[in-house]
Each structure stands twice: as C-alpha cells, then as structure tokens.
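Order emerges. As here.
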Amino acid sequence: MLVYILRRIGAAIPILAIVVIVTFSIIHLVPGNPAAVILGPSATAQAITHLTRAMGLDKSLPQQFRIWLSGIVQGNFGYSVFLDEPVLRAIAQHAVPTLWLSIYAEIISILLSLVLGMVAAWYAGSVIDRVLDIVFMAQIAIPDFILALELIYLFAVLVRLFPVSGYTSPSQGLGPFLGSITLPALVLGIGQAGLIARVIRDAIVESFQRDYVRVAMAKGASKMRAFFRHALRSSLIVPLTMMGSSFATLLGGVVILESVFNIPGLGWLAVNAILNKDYPTVQAVVMLIAISYITINLIVDMLYFVVDPRTRTIYQ
C-alpha cells in the first residue's frame, strides 16, 4: 500500500506545481502595474508606489515568486485592499458556508444517484429505464445556473417553500439554515447525480451478467437477494471513485451558484474579488480550491485501493 500511496502522491506533485505557477501568474497577467489597477484611476502616485512595494512588485520575478511561495507555505496569502484585512482571515470567514453547501449537495447527489441508478438497473430495458435515461441526460446537460433559476421560480416564487436567496448560519437555527442552502444544494446535487446514476445503472446491469451472480440465482437466490448482495456490492467501486471526485467538482461549481443565491462563501468571495480587482484574494481562492480538488482526489485514490482487491494485488 505504501508504494501505491507514494506513486499517487508523486503523480499529484507535478499538478500542484502547475497550479502554483498558474496562480502566481494571475497578478502578472494584468496589463500595466497591478497596484495601479487595484487602487483605481483616482489613486495618487505615492499610494501606488506604497502598494507596489508592499506587494513586492518592485522586485524581480524570481524574487517575487520565492517570497509569495514562502508566504503561502507559512499561511500568509497577502493582504486584501478591498476587504481591508488579511486574505487568510477572509477565506476562513467565507469557507464555512461553502463547506456546508458542498457537503449537503454531496449527500443529495449520493442519495439521488443511488436511488435512480438502482431503479433503472432493476427495470433495465423497460420503459422506466428509458425514461430515467432521458432524466440522466437532462441532469447532465442542463447548466447549473439555468436549473437554479428554474428551481428558484418553482420553490421560492410559486410555492414559497424556500427563500429566494441569502444565507442563514447554523447558529440561528437548523430550520432556517437548511432552508437557506437547500435550493443551491439541490442544484449542485442534481447536476452531479445524473452521470453517477448512469454509471451505477450500467455497472449493476453488467454485474448481473457475471457468472457468480448467475450461479447464485441458479442455486435459488431471489432476484432481490442477487441484486443487493452480489450485483450492487460489486458494482459500486467505480461510482465510489466518481462520488469522491464529484465532491471536489462541487467546490468549483459553487463559484457561480453562490453569486446566484447570494451565499457569502468562497465562490461569492472570488466573484467579488475579481470585480474589485482584489488579485491577492483571487490567487488565494484559486489556490485553495485547486489544492482541495487535488487532495480529495488523492483520498479517493486511497479508498479505491482499500475497496478494490485487484489494486492491492498489483502493488504487492
């Protein structure tokens, strides 16, 4: 297992290096002096010079990269002129809503994909299966922001079951908290569930064709027993990997949805940082989401090693 872990970590290092370089380059892709762009056209020359030195932009590019990377390692992501506070403090304040939203959406995605995938597999080849196949394709094809607007109109405007936008902290009550994040979580969960449900359905149907399932049914096992005890258990390896990867994808999907639903999370922070030319904050958010994506996928690879005996055999 140690060899497998080291190989996966080794494969993640080049990706992380690319992310670091691209993130560092964000501020240097700005035409002109980034400090002048951040402060705006009304800034004085003295203020621009002061911010240029404070951001280390008066040094050579290798020196800037070394100082920036050293600060990242120490947890120093710079200072936000727009928010007038350290970037790390701003991220800590806005990360909690994003984390809650991502966890809630992942739970919805897993439950929805398992139920729909199992139903489609049970009725494989029937009208129900074909209808669900259309549903899966619609879930994959509809953009999140379109689905968000439709759900807002249905559940917030017509039915008035949930608020149109806004975020309520868990400290203010579980009911208001869940009400404030259910719609965006549904949007994210539905979008992720379509592909996973399709994979679960195909994996279960394929498992039903294997010899050990046929032998079990020939010995008298009912279809339901063969379905849950044999076909379902052996077919969840690939969906398990996808479920872990989908959680990492959710972190990127919240960027748009948090703006639509006015949830003050990392996505909301990133959009407002971009609009206000707050490049240190943009760098920090991009770096955090990228590192989270890499880390979650690395954890999923470890789980894959645990649940799939064939992987353990290869690396013994």
In short: Residues 18-86 form one domain.
